[in-house]
Structure formats: C-alpha cells, structure tokens
Amino acid sequence: MKLKSFALVTLMALPFAAQADDASDLERYRTAEKLGQQHLATFDTLDFDVFTGQKWDRLKESHGQNVRVHWPDGRVTDGIDAHIADLQYMFSFAPDTRILEHPIKLQDGEWTSVVGYMEGTFSQPMKLADGTEIAPTGKAYRIAMSTVSHWAEDGTMDEEYLFWDNQAFMAQIGLGQ
C-alpha cells in the first residue's frame, strides 16, 4: 500500500513539476527576449547615430574594449582602437558614409543580427597601405551589409562579424568590374 501511495503522489506531482519547468522556461525566454531587444536598440543607435555621425568616442557604448571584429575581407582585428581606426579609414575616402536602416533584425539573447544598407560617395582620395592614392571617382554606392554580434554581460559587443560584398562595393565606386 505504501508503494501505491508513493506512486500516486509521484504521478500527481509530475504535472506541477512540468508547470514549474514551463514557468522557468517562459521566464528564461522573456529575459532573453528583453535582453535581445535591448541589444538591437543599442545597435540601431550605433549605426544610425554613432557610426553615421562618426562619434567614435561613443563606440564604447556598444563595443567592449577588447572587441574582436571579423571583416568581410577576412581580416580579424582585436580591440576597440583597431576597430575605430578601420571605421575612420572607411570615412576617409567616403565621408558621407551612412547606415540609415535595418530592415531585418534578429536576436536570441546575447546574439543579434541585423541587415542594413551602407551607402556613401567615393569623393576623397583613397590612401592605400603602400602610400599611394586612388583618385576619387565621385560615384555613389549602396550595398547590403549584415552584422552578427555577440554581446557580453556588460551590454557591449565582445565579437562582431561584418558581411558585405566587397566586389559589388568596388564596382559601384568605379574600381572593379
């Protein structure tokens, strides 16, 4: 009889345990959803205000000091200072570079991904690593870009993956086929 009582109590407790697990899962989901939405809002500010406005002193609001950035050309840089230098270079030959929209935004807790459009005009000389320069063509560009980011517990990115078609970019500014 005691065995039957134990089994009955155990079976009766199972739905309550499942409900507790469901509640925990729901709470974890809600927390991850809220966190992801906060990261996407930070990312919108990053691209639409900080990046577009070249407010490099504010990049630390979204990027950690030791951020690792994976570039479309295969390079990987470490640290916010290296990232700022690369971003400044982009503006050196296209000072009107901007990102004004993210039509696609995805998030899952500490991971986000956005798709947007980067546009500008090749209006200043492009300095190359060997010291030579390419004269500006005056041609505008508009390319799809995507960023996949991992966010650390402090609310800044510790890793960022940047994607766009460099061949399409070069063709649009008059430097490629």
UniProtKB/TrEMBL annotation:
<dbReference type="InterPro" id="IPR009959">
    <property type="entry name" value="Cyclase_SnoaL-like"/>
</dbReference>
<dbReference type="GO" id="GO:0030638">
    <property type="term" value="P:polyketide metabolic process"/>
</dbReference>
<dbReference type="InterPro" id="IPR032710">
    <property type="entry name" value="NTF2-like_dom_sf"/>
</dbReference>
<dbReference type="Pfam" id="PF07366">
    <property type="entry name" value="SnoaL"/>
</dbReference>
<protein>
    <submittedName>
        <fullName>Polyketide cyclase</fullName>
    </submittedName>
</protein>
<feature type="signal peptide">
    <location>
        <begin position="1"/>
        <end position="20"/>
    </location>
</feature>
<keyword id="KW-0732">Signal</keyword>
